[in-house]
């Protein structure tokens, strides 16, 4: 089964669990809408790719970890789009959750996705119960306070920001959570996979900055120019356009080089280099070539 | 150690974990503000009281469960007070979190408290790892979709409400979560403690309706008359004042009668009857006498 199908099948099971009975109906619709159709599913793909590279001896555990990570990512998108944050009317090329279902439902849907993520890990790891605590440990760290994506969003309210700490929390943390959770789910040492998550997360943040700067809303399915509009730090402002593209390429190279020796390392390197090509906005493809 | 001190000490440890390093500073302050000083801590008291009645053989597990339950309760208060929900300016006699720290920080603080709750269970149950999945199971069910407090809030957006299902989700679910988690943490059968949580949750909902109807803001530390203002169901409207007070007393009696035979059953019955007296608004004490 290809990764995308495997991810969506497991997300479908989680959403079915949370919406059993179909009531209350509005939030049930909003939960499904928040998760389907998905974006690139890059974080759960990364989690499963690491698990597969390490043998994926407990697929229920890796499925649970990948599902939880994507549910938490979707929750963060739903809350980030709220009027008090980015006030984004669109996401993934359709109305954002609060635009489609109202603000109260959007807040509650995000909350429910967070709870569902941890329930999924606890429920689906029955065959490998010793992996529940370490999985929740690395995934909780990746999303919560003081180092996860919630902290990253919270940095935007601070008067003074350390750009590196901010980007680490806002973006890299969940990539690190994805690689290390994939390793734990497969019974491997998460430390060997920390650098891959870190480098890819840094690369993804630079790519996100490039897309915000240089893409069209049609290409990325959400508003552009948000960093400039909200006076947020952006790698293009810091390094210039050419410098930011170079930095992205360096980070992808470091990511590929960090992959430890294991039975699936060659497969994973190809996957990383393939994913990296999707990160560059179309309008910058010639700059990056 | 008395229950209140035990609860606050464990909440303090959890908040210290989430705010390690003190940054980002605004949300760190908001997290502490959301949890301290607390209200009656009735749910974690109930969780620990059940664990103690069953012998409390693994205090780390019962502490973790009680802490997680109170963190989730605090998260729900922070989000319920937001402008798009109750738009409450005060809570526990002080400005609500969004009033004090702004709306974005309030959304993120609630999110962070939810994550912290599940991290706490995973981290603190090292001596009893077999209890992590069942604890997350009952606590996740108590707060998440489709039967937990998030579903309860979500019912308020529906055009047609089954009052019993709504109250079960909004209030009783977390009381059931508290009693059953206390039992699981102590290695006991959670089914024996389901009815206690259910009856107390129903009683608490009736008491909450009475307070919203008959108290002053000074007595309960938050605005009154919210149910009428938001056209929400309320037991006083349904049963009349005398009928609602009688219903409350019946439920407390059922709760006390449901306590199973165990070494701490007498202690627990006294605790329940004592707590019940605090539930009645002062202005109704003569009606309830």
UniProtKB/TrEMBL annotation, chains A, B:
GO biological process annotations for this chain's record?
A: terpenoid biosynthetic process
Q: Which keywords does this chain's UniProt record carry?
A: Isoprene biosynthesis, Magnesium, Metal-binding, Transferase
- Name the CDD domains for this protein: Trans_IPPS_HT
What are this entry's molecular-function GO terms? metal ion binding; prenyltransferase activity
InterPro entries, per database record: Isoprenoid_synthase_dom_sf, Polyprenyl_synt, Polyprenyl_synt_CS
Per its UniProt record, the required cofactor names are: Mg(2+)
Which superkingdom, per the lineage?
Bacteria
User: Short name of one Pfam family for this protein?
Assistant: polyprenyl_synt
Name the PROSITE patterns on file. Answer: POLYPRENYL_SYNTHASE_1 (PS00723), POLYPRENYL_SYNTHASE_2 (PS00444)
Protein family (similarity comment): Belongs to the FPP/GGPP synthase family.
Q: What is this protein called in UniProt?
A: Probable farnesyl diphosphate synthase
Organism, as annotated: Hoeflea phototrophica (strain DSM 17068 / NCIMB 14078 / DFL-43)
């Amino acid at each position: 089964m290809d990764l995308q199908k495997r991810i969506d099948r497991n997300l479908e099971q989680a959403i079915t669990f949370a919406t059993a009975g179909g009531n209350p109906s509005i939030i049930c619709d909003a939960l499904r809408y928040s998760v389907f159709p998905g974006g690139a599913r890059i974080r759960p793909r990364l989690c499963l790719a690491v698990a597969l590279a390490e043998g994926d001896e407990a697929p229920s555990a890796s499925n649970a970890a990948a599902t939880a990570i994507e549910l938490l990512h979707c929750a963060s998108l739903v809350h980030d789009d709220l009027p008090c944050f980015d006030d984004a009317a669109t996401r993934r090329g359709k109305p954002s959750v609060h635009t489609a279902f109202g603000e109260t439902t959007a807040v509650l849907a995000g909350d429910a996705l967070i709870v569902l993520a941890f329930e999924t890990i606890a429920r689906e790891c029955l065959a490998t119960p010793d992996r529940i605590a370490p999985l929740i440990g690395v995934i909780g760290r990746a999303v919560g306070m003081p180092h996860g994506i919630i902290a990253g969003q919270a940095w935007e309210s601070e008067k003074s920001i350390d750009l590196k700490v901010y980007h680490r929390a806002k973006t890299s943390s969940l990539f690190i959570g994805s690689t290390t959770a994939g390793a734990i789910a497969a019974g491997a040492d998460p430390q060997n996979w920390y650098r891959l998550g870190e480098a890819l997360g840094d690369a993804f943040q630079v790519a996100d900055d490039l897309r915000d700067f240089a893409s069209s809303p049609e290409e990325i399915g959400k508003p552009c120019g948000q960093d400039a509009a909200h006076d947020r730090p952006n790698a293009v402002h810091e390094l210039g356009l050419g410098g930011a593209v170079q930095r992205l390429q360096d980070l992808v190279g470091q990511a590929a080089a960090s992959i430890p020796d294991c039975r699936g390392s060659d497969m994973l390197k190809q996957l990383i280099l393939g994913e990296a090509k999707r990160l560059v906005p179309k309008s910058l493809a010639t700059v990056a070539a």
